């Protein structure tokens, strides 16, 4: 859900509004002279960053600008970055720079509660987990294939507690990528009021940075299928002075325009 920051909504109303319109996240947009400011909310509160919210905002900004190739300087979470969108009507391809990705490897003792809550036997984990952050840390967990990924049924209460103990946004579980960089993923973030996300661009950017060290320069990650809301997120990387530089995004559609302040 995308709305103008100029709307006279309280913080509580901003948290509630995405659920009212059937969305998991809301992004509030304020165009400025130097940059477009973005603020992100879920039912649990404000977030410093939101990848698919950024993609949605770029699509709406491009729609309003009525130009086939839109570029903007964006600001959120204390950083300024570039984004672009191409398309027309109600369908746009939007991409942005999520910023540097911080990566670390947790101990097995730290990983075990998260893995167990997700439904993965820690003894059968196929590769070590990673902690990755582009604003808030999340755990990246690899499983062998899409069938195992699709069969996961996390204990959300246990997962929320395990993530809270480690200060994690959530857990991003992904299938082993094919040689050409195709994978599937599921993002579980009950601590911010989103048991499962239909798309998560920032976590996919984190995965791209992690897999850049394993020879992947481009990824296409399918998400949302278990929720019957399929999406595909694309991420590319190239070497940078502080590690891989990532560009991430996907296709956004604008199904309808509503006034968030309307009583209807």
TrEMBL record:
The keyword Isomerase applies. Pfam families: PhzC-PhzF. Belongs to the PhzF family. It comes from the Bacteria. SUPFAM superfamilies: Diaminopimelate epimerase-like. Keywords: Isomerase. GO terms for cellular component: cytoplasm. This is Isomerase YddE. GO terms for molecular function: isomerase activity. The keyword Isomerase applies. Gene3D superfamilies: Diaminopimelate Epimerase, Chain A, domain 1.
């Amino acid at each position: 859900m995308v709305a103008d920051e100029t709307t006279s909504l309280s913080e509580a109303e901003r948290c509630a509004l995405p659920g009212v319109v059937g969305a998991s996240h809301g992004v509030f947009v304020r165009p400025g002279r130097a940059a477009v400011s973005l603020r992100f909310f879920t039912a649990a509160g404000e977030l410093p960053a939101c990848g698919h919210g950024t993609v949605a905002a770029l699509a709406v900004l491009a729609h309003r600008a009525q130009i086939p190739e839109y570029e903007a300087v964006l600001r959120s979470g204390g950083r300024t970055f570039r984004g672009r969108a191409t398309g027309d009507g109600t369908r746009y391809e939007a991409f942005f720079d999520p910023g540097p990705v911080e990566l670390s490897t947790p101990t097995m003792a730290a990983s075990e509660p998260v893995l167990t809550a997700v439904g993965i036997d820690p003894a059968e984990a196929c590769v070590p987990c990673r902690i990755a952050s582009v604003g808030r840390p999340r755990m990246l967990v690899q499983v062998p294939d899409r069938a195992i990924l699709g069969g996961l049924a996390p204990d959300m209460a246990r997962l929320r507690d395990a993530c809270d103990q480690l200060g994690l946004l959530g857990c991003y579980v992904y299938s082993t990528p094919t040689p050409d960089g195709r994978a599937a993923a599921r993002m579980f973030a009950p601590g911010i009021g989103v048991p499962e996300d239909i798309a998560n661009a920032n976590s996919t950017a984190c995965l791209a940075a992690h897999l850049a060290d394993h020879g992947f320069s481009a990824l296409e990650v399918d998400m949302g299928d278990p929720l019957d809301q399929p999406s595909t997120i694309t991420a590319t990387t190239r070497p940078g002075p502080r590690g891989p530089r990532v560009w991430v995004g996907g296709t956004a559609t604008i199904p309808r325009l509503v006034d968030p302040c309307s009583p209807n």
